[in-house]
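Record 1 of the preview.
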Amino acid sequence: MNAFYRLFLFFLLFPLFQSCTKSIGIRVLQPAEMMVPEHIQTIVTVDRSKPSSGFVTVLEGLFTGEEINQDRRGRKEALEGLTSALTRTPRFQVKHSDLTLEGSKGGVQMAYPLGWAKVQSICEQYGADALVAIEAYDSDVRVTTNPYTTTRKDEDGNEIKETRYRAQAQVDITIGWRFYDPQKKIILDEFTVQTGEEYSATGLTAQQAESNLPDLAYKAFDLSRIAGEKYGMRIAPVWITVQRQFYTSGKKPFKEQMKKAARMVERDQWEAATQIWQSLVKKADAKTAGRAAYNLAVAAERMGYLQTALKWAEKAYLEFNFKPAKTYIQELKVRINDARLLDYQMHQKPGT
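->
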């Protein structure tokens, strides 16, 4: 089978494959990357990355083209991203202080840690057990524009070479965080989040190419918020949504039963749908039974019964040779391990 025919067959069958599945979202509590002491239940956030020398920041903006106060807005977005993540956790309550404290000279490097008397004072003021601070912030925007040659044909078929311009932009965000525990007088975490994206645009002139780029200041704000959310997920278990596929069709004479079960799922009648899938596992052909077993695994995961979901996924793969279940088995094993970790992070005994 040549490459062209394989490609043709893929595009011919892909819509058919897509029509056999539908997607659902399952809420999952994702474990944090680090353990936080049990006595910490409320966190207050602080911006401590204000440059102690405003002149340095203005000077940097003149050379990089960054807007005045762009970093100030970026720091605010980062804290809002952190707060957004922490409002999706059952582990902590979060309070935003609106305090802006001076950090290092340029705000790019972390200053010496806050004194414990200051940390304790802020925590008492806001009724918090711990303090999370942005201790360094830097947004770096770089744009380069270069000419390139393209060829087109005129009405007579003659080739005409034209010069155009391509603008390429790189936006990088670096944020330093500290997590203070005033009761134990220790810094629980000192961590730097780095994120960035590239953008490109073309135009007939260098100026037009650059004007066709997206608003880079707002891209920096978006990345700052994302960086804040990433740090929130580092320190706290956070609810996220994962997508799962389930199968809506099978081989005759069981095709209509699979479609009926899919309609029940659309109406949130999962129990009735599982009854159909269970009957198909017992009596249908291997392909349809494999799909039904896979769907039962998805239904069990949706209900939080991860071990049951794993058993159904393994049945789909091992008994019916339903190959998509192989990847799902690994995903479920990761979720089971995450659940054990969450028991510790949420300070619960296993099985409760």
